[in-house]
Specification:
261 residues; alpha+beta; 2 domains; ten-stranded mixed β-sheet; isomerase; mRNA processing; Pseudouridylate synthase TRUB1; TruB_C; nucleus
Length: 261
């Protein structure tokens, strides 16, 4: 009986959470998969038998994330819980920081290492100085075409899902995005490492693809890590999987402003 009271109390505390926190997303699963895993862990801890976070009916835990990270990417994933889900739109449009490792000489259909190679070009002529010069043209307010394989939707379905089903998908038109800071950290051809600070709607994969073309070669993203989103940083705020517990979230939670709660 005591155990049941304790678990009911945990569930009540869990369902009473309102605010934002950040978790670490590892490379491999989708952002939605990671969020479902988090829900499952928390509901189990609260004593819910066989929780199925994908069933939306009678959803016992209201949770969402503030911006998809590619399955091939890792790093900060901001999570909204309770009324905190209403604050996620500010996370989508807010600034983000990434560290990207690009590879010259090979382009893929997904613009990252998960895709099939669709083009190979020489890269021996590319120098560090040339990369640094070209990066200046991708800084500030720029126009960017989103990747075909993305979370963007057509007729309610994600473009990436439509492509995998064999449907023909047209590229979305170029749109305005902002790059606040863009620096070359390392260059050992064919690999190069970029430090990027950007606004909402920006795709690192598109940047690396465009950069490869601008260098008279081609390129794709080999590794991608989001190091900061809004006020949440990878080092200080992102809860690792072993910290996915009510206790850790209560400590990390940034509560909603009064107007939202």
């Amino acid at each position: 009986m005591a155990g049941r009271i304790s678990s009911n109390s945990s569930l009540t505390k869990l369902q009473a959470l309102n605010g934002l926190f950040a978790i670490y997303k590892k490379q491999g699963p989708t952002s939605a998969d990671v969020l479902n895993s988090l829900k499952e862990v928390l509901l189990r801890e609260a004593g819910v038998e066989n929780p199925n976070p994908r069933k939306r009916k009678k959803q016992s835990l209201k949770m969402g994330h503030g911006g998809t990270l590619d399955s091939n990417a890792s790093g900060v994933l901001v999570v909204g819980v309770g009324n905190g889900t209403k604050m996620l739109t500010t996370m989508l449009s807010g600034s983000k920081k990434y560290v990207a490792v690009g590879q010259l000489g090979k382009a893929t259909d997904t613009l990252d290492a998960t895709g099939s190679v669709v083009l190979e070009k020489d890269f021996e002529h590319v120098t560090r100085l040339e990369v640094e010069e070209k990066l200046k043209t991708f800084t500030g307010d720029i126009m960017q075409v989103p990747p075909l394989y993305s979370a963007l939707k057509k007729d309610g379905q994600r473009l990436s899902v439509l492509l995998k089903k064999g449907h023909k998908v047209e590229a979305k038109p170029a749109r305005a995005v902002t790059v606040y800071n863009l620096t070359l950290q390392e260059f050992t051809a064919p690999l190069f490492t970029l430090d990027i600070e950007c606004g909402g709607g920006f795709y690192v994969r598109s940047l690396v693809d465009d950069l490869g073309k601008a260098l008279s070669s081609c390129a794709h993203v080999k590794e991608l890590t989001r190091t900061k989103q809004g006020q949440f940083t990878l080092e200080e705020h992102a809860l690792q999987e072993e910290q996915w517990s009510l206790e850790h979230i209560l400590r990390a939670l940034q509560p909603c402003p009064e107007a939202l709660s």
